[in-house]
Each structure stands twice: as C-alpha cells, then as structure tokens.
Amino acid sequence: MPRWMKLIQTITLSVGAPMLLRRMKQEIGSQGTLSGPTAAWMWVTYGIHSALLLDAFATATTAPPLARPVRGTLQALTVMGMSMCLAGMRRFASPAQLSGTDVGDLVTGGIYRYSRNPQYLGAVVALFATSALCRSVKGTVLTGALLAAYRVWVPIEENHLHRQFDPAYRRYRAATPRWLRIRA
Questions:
Q1: How far is CA 76 from CA 6, 22, 80, in A?
Q2: Rounded distance, CA 24 to CA 18, Å?
Q3: How far out from the chain centre does Cα 11 lie?
Q4: In this structure, are residues 79 and 110 in contact, taking their beta carbons and an 8 Å threshold?
Q5: C-alpha angle 105-160-48 in degrees, rounded to nearest 5
Q6: What gap in Å lies between CA 113 and CA 102, rounded to an integer?
Q7: Tens digit of pLDDT for each residue in 66-107?
Q8: Are 48 and 12 in contact (CB under 8 A)?
Q9: Considering the chain, what is the average pLDDT of its residues?
Q10: pLDDT for 59 beyond 90
Q11: Distance in angstroms (rounded) separating the CA atoms of residues 148 and 126
C-alpha cells in the first residue's frame, strides 16, 4: 500500500472515528437507531481499519520464529476470537439489526449467554493474537485503537438497550458479564 494512502487512512481514522462515535451516540440517544448514512460510515471505517491491519500484518518485520506452543496458542486465540465474533453476528435477525439501523429484539441466546459483547471481544482477541503472531507493532496499536473505540461505544449501546428493553435488559445485564464468563 502506498505511503500516502496509509497516511490518508490513518488521518481519516484518527479524526473520523471520534466524529463517528459522537454521531452514533447522538443518533442512538435521540432516534434509538443509526441512520443509513451513519451505518455506512461505520462500515467504511471498519473497512479502512481492516485495510490498515492487513497492511500492518503483511509488512511486519521478520523476527526469529515463535516457539511452537506460543504460535499454536496464538493461532488458537485467533480462531477462537473470530469464531466468537461470527457467532455473535449470526444471532442477529437481519443486517439492519446488526448495523444498528433496526432495533429488532433483545439478543440473549447462544454466545450472548456468556458475553454481552461477543462480537467486540472476539474481534479484539483475534486481532491482538494475530498482531502477536505477525510481531506487528502497528497491528497492536490499531487493535488497541479499536478496543478504545469499543470501550467508548459499549456503554452508549448498553444505555440504549436499557432504555429500549427494560426490565428484560436489566435482568440480562445482571446475569451476563460485559466481556466474558467462563464456568469451571
């Protein structure tokens, strides 16, 4: 990827993502859904972020190979994270509900029994593990930025769900952790 394109993408994310989060917060708070243009902006932002991550992974510096158990653990975390993310996405009734442009029903089954945010958690786990596998500092920084955005967005989303689905959401929130429950 040309250097100028990476620079434009980085500036777009660093300026555009905070603006997008403010717009999402405003729309969820006032309308209860995201507008089509805001959802499109969200998906474009994910696309730019993904392109930067792919470039970071592809251009990571070579280092001595990781020990087999470490490499295997990181590969397993990557697969587990992606599986968790996809399982969370699959529970939604429609792409509009997944994008936040349609309210739909409160989703509490499947993977959502163990985490209120399996998509976000799974994406971050998979990306951090892949960054470690590739020894990519840029990948780690980009994943940290995504985690920071999720930490801003999740409370906004949870407040919306509380307003939309109370008292069912209050019961769900009390029974299910924000990130992950592992039973022994």
A1: 30, 35, 6
A2: 10
A3: 20
A4: no
A5: 90
A6: 22
A7: 899 999 999 999 999 999 999 999 988 788 887 788 878 899
A8: yes
A9: 89
A10: no
A11: 16
One-letter amino acid for residue 14 of the chain: S
Q: Which residue bears the tokens 């405003």?
A: 26
Cα separation of 96 and 100, whole Å?
6
Torsion angle in degrees (nearest 10) through CA of 114, 115, 119, 121? -110
Closest to 111 measured CA to CA, from 133, 130, 92: 92
Report the half-sphere exposure of 85 (CA within 13 A, side-chain side).
14
Rg (CA), the chain: 18
> Do you find a cis peptide bond into 167, omega within 30 degrees of 0?
yes
Question: Is residue 63 within 8 Å of 71, Cβ to Cβ?
Answer: no
Using an 8 Å Cβ cutoff, are 105 and 93 in contact?
A: yes
**Per this entry, what is the length of the chain?**
184
Q: For tokens 């786990």, name the residue.
A: 125
pLDDT 10s digits, 20-47: 999 999 999 998 889 999 999 999 999 9
Determine the pLDDT at residue 104: 82
What is the rounded CA–CA span in Å between residue 76 and residue 4? 35
Q: What angle do CA 133, 135, 136 make, to 5 degrees?
A: 115
Q: With beta carbons less than 8 A apart as the criterion, state whether 161 and 75 touch.
A: no
